[in-house]
Design goal:
Elements (H helix, E strand, L loop, with lengths): L11 H18 L8 H14 L3 H8 L3 H16 L5 H8 L5 E9 L10 E2 L4 E10 L5 E4 L3 E2 L4 H8 L1 H7 L4 E2 L11 E2 L11 H14 L2 H9 L14 H15 L3
Parallel strand pairs: 1-6, 6-7
Antiparallel strand pairs: 1-3, 2-3, 3-4, 3-5
């Protein structure tokens, strides 16, 4: 097998944060000797999340077995996922802001046509539905557990308790038409074809679209982690991957 050097378009703060968490975990479980130091294990996990390289390729580059690479990455992902903010924590932080933005995205997965629960008719692909909350500037506050892609955004928001949590905290939320009927503090555009709306309703919808456009920054932040652009692992692991990415992003942000 050929091995080549690669680079990561990340700051060293991501690596320092994860390395510290892994050292804490090793002390807590009394781990003595590992094939990789905490720093190298952190680099292995970050490389997997950021570049999406397969386990065999990473194992060869780090001089370890494929099973060991899988185990080290899983350990790091789980450690990061446990630190991700809960919905209650995100809503508490959002209560000090003017409003929040809510949107959903479908992360592509490798499934066949028979896997109907994972097929999103809207996006015309198999995937997992993840709901995202951001602040008014489009910076990530929270990402939900992953649901099958066939689940619509409004149903996903209800299942996760997003709408009720925002309503209890009196946090205004801007969302798209996929959340029609949400109620509470969720604000969506006027419903109907453009040529059937009044001039005033069209103006409101244009303003609404300009505000909501900032949520695309959060989606881009998630998908900059190339592993999430085409996920090939078990669907039961996708929530942990999303939470790990969220934790690393928040840990390295200036917010």
């Amino acid at each position: 097998m050929l091995v080549y050097p690669s680079n990561l378009d990340l700051s060293s703060s991501h690596l320092r944060f994860l390395s510290a968490r892994l050292r804490e975990r090793r002390r807590a479980i009394g781990s003595r000797w590992r094939r990789l130091s905490a720093g190298r294990q952190a680099l292995l996990a970050v490389a997997h999340l950021r570049n999406g390289h397969p386990y065999a390729q990473l194992a060869a580059g780090f001089g370890i077995g494929t099973t060991t690479a899988y185990r080290y990455i899983t350990e790091a992902v789980d450690a990061l996922g446990a630190l991700a903010p809960t919905l209650e924590q995100a809503v508490h932080e959002a209560s000090g802001k003017a409003f929040v933005l809510l949107d959903g995205t479908v992360l592509p997965i490798d499934r066949i046509a028979a896997d109907r629960p994972f097929y999103s008719g809207k996006h015309k692909k198999h995937g997992m539905n993840v709901q995202v909350l951001t602040d008014p500037s489009g910076r990530l506050l929270w990402a939900s557990p992953a649901l099958p892609g066939a689940v619509h955004d409004i149903r996903a928001a209800r299942e996760h308790g997003i709408i009720d949590a925002l309503d209890r905290a009196h946090v205004t939320c801007w969302a798209d038409k996929g959340y029609r009927g949400a109620g509470g503090t969720v604000r969506i555009p006027y419903w109907g074809r453009w040529d059937t709306l009044s001039p005033g309703q069209r103006a409101v919808n244009r303003s609404h679209a300009k505000i909501r456009a900032l949520v695309e920054q959060a989606m881009a932040t998630l998908k900059n982690w190339r592993l999430l652009r085409k996920i090939r692992c078990s669907t039961t692991r996708i929530t942990a991957l999303v939470q790990a990415v969220l934790t690393l992003h928040l840990a390295s942000s200036d917010r």
